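Hey L., structure's done. Input below.
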Amino acid sequence: FFEEDGMEASSNLEKIQELLKFYFSDSNLLRSKFLQKIIHENDSWVPIEVILTFNKLKEITEDPKEVADAIATLSDLLELSEDRTKLRRSAPLEKTGSDLKKYTVYVENLPPNTTIDTLMELFKPAGEVSFINLPRNEDHTPQGWAFVELKDQNLKEVCAKMNAFHRDTNPTGLRVMSWWDWNQYRLRYAELVEGKSEVKARKTAKQIQKMDISTSPSKTSSNRDASEKPSKRSEKPKKPTKKPEQREKDRSKDEMEETNVDMKPDRGPSRPWIDP
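Output:
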């Protein structure tokens, strides 16, 4: 979301030209889903009446003729239709969507009164600025960070220069990093948050599991009080009580086996005795 309030021009024509250059620049066209949709639906053309709905241009003029006159002076970038009601970009795009990241830096700890003008001034040591995304809150105050696309692709040097230049002059502790460094920082932060969430989710799952076990009809017996649980000894089946006569017969049989053990053939120590 680019804000063009930092642009200055001496006449309406120059102001319209600057806005048209921005609207159809590589940086804006590759980011604007709205313009991409209009271009796709109209065989690469954009009606001037659509351009006139853009807030910044609407503040300057509502006259399609003025816009058409401005387009006619930008023939190296834009083409005006024969009926002077539509325009399209005449020069091919020099960048791709992935190229934008190579030229973009992330800046944070911006003062609460930051504007596009102050950002343009802030990044003068880094060279020419192509695009600025300054997110705002619902009350239109800046959120304290921004993305700035530069003409210079050597972002490592740019970031070092910017951080060194503003280290002593910016009381808020301005920090500038490349888009790639910012993305890695963001991913690490997401992993940290996700890790904490996973731990919390596991704890919640265990609590739910305990609740499920306690309310399950098939396992209610396992959750009874200790006083209600049957003892392990009582759970084992009881042996049937032998009658006195049966106990006497078993005792006699055991005594006979002990006296005749030497008369049985030896089947080896590793094999139990099996009656033939």
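The mean pLDDT is 74. Residues 179-215 form the longest helix (37 residues).

-- N.
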